[in-house]
């Protein structure tokens, strides 16, 4: 949606939709992302972030075979997202998209932006209802959106149900190992901000920025300067304002489809039992994101009521189910599937054991 600010009262028509001036006067918040065969999960993710006040979606699709690109074209034509098909041709789809997004008009028009994947859901904590509430609560240039890894909640099979309701079991908020439990993405100021271009986890700086953590606390100048740092400090209550729910597995069947698809930024990295073990934490129930569910469902219902959207989504679901059956007809894949089903959860170590494990990894990488 490409709406510009305008003085006065009333409404304007944009893409055959009515946009209130209350929204027009709010900050333009952009999500940019890449997708491949994510059709069954896409509407919930878009609707959730619309409910949080995201105004623009810049979505790059990559060689989809499940109809995700058709669904995105339908939403694009309705003015709900901006869809850009791209062909990676052996290159990293995510890096290609980042390069293109940096020059896209939606980026130059945005007040704030974040690059997140469609298995990552921003979880604003009370009393915030919209991203604007958090943005205006401080004078930050960037907010750390720290991952909270959610496991498969012992869901073996794909179900056409909301991700945020199906998968409620997660890693503890303070988890000393593995380090990826403290990885983060960034919500950052674009217009008049101190950043020069987007990155996968954090934008590239042109000057010192005012970074705040997920509890609204200012971070150090050293953190701002450390452009390669993508691990948040393990402090007390690191996500009192906001966290990023990361549903990187979903059900075991969904994981098998993800394994075949590959990763958007590291196509050569194996998605195997080791990947599963580092992410399948079902230790603590976290229902906090469900406070946004009613508002998100209202947006989802509206999107589904648009011409051809429900049909396009259903085609994606049918293709997803077909992909599961094809993959699991391979004996090697079926064997892995059954072994993953035996691994009910990963258990984070205590801090003493975590220290030993980290020292081992550091020693091995330095030799």
Question: Gist?
Answer:
It is a single-pass membrane protein. Strands 3, 4, 5, 6, 7, 8, 10, 13 and 14 form a nine-stranded mixed β-sheet that branches. Strands 1-2 form a two-stranded antiparallel ribbon. A two-stranded antiparallel sheet has the order 9-15.
Structure keywords:
alpha/beta, 9-stranded mixed β-sheet, two-stranded antiparallel ribbon, disordered N terminus
Write the layout of secondary structure elements.
Elements: E1 11-14, E2 17-20, H1 21-24, E3 29-35, H2 39-51, E4 56-62, H3 68-77, E5 82-86, H4 93-103, H5 105-109, E6 112-115, E7 120-124, H6 131-135, E8 142-149, H7 163-166, E9 169-170, E10 184-189, E11 195-197, E12 204-205, E13 211-212, H8 221-225, E14 242-246, H9 252-261, H10 273-277, E15 284-285, H11 293-304, H12 309-327, H13 331-342, H14 351-366
Parallel strand pairs: 3-4, 3-6, 4-5, 8-13, 8-14
Antiparallel strand pairs: 1-2, 6-10, 7-14, 8-10, 9-15, 11-12
